[in-house]
Design a protein that fits this description.
The protein has a two-stranded parallel sheet with strand order 1-2. It has two helices and two strands, in the order βαβα. It is elongated and about 60 Å long. The longest helix has 14 residues. The protein is mostly loops and 132 residues long.
Length: 132
Amino acid sequence: MVSPARKVNIVKKRTKPFVRVQSDNFKRVSASWRRPRGIDSRTRRRFKGTRPQPKIGFGSSKKTRFLLPDGFRKYTIHNLGDLESLVMLNRTYAAEIAHNIGAKKRIELIERAKQLSVKVINADARIRAVEN
């Protein structure tokens, strides 16, 4: 199996989701984040004791942004040409076969990826075990 060129420790500054204002008070207000826009909003004005809001400082390091836990970056492939483009970058990028690729094409792509020693993230998807 191909290993990443360098394994960098991924540090997330915040893993808890940011919660929408008053989502705990009303069932109709979902918890998914929306920016508070009211003119008198305590949260928008960042008063003491209010819930945290997303800021640029919570962003990930440039080295580890979009990095998968195994140390690769994801690259979606649709055909053999896309796969061939990963030959020189097979220790940086891992291939992910697009969702709309059928089983027959997937088998071709996976076989070619093995020859090129490119890691395929979703190699098991849509492939049935061959019965003897």
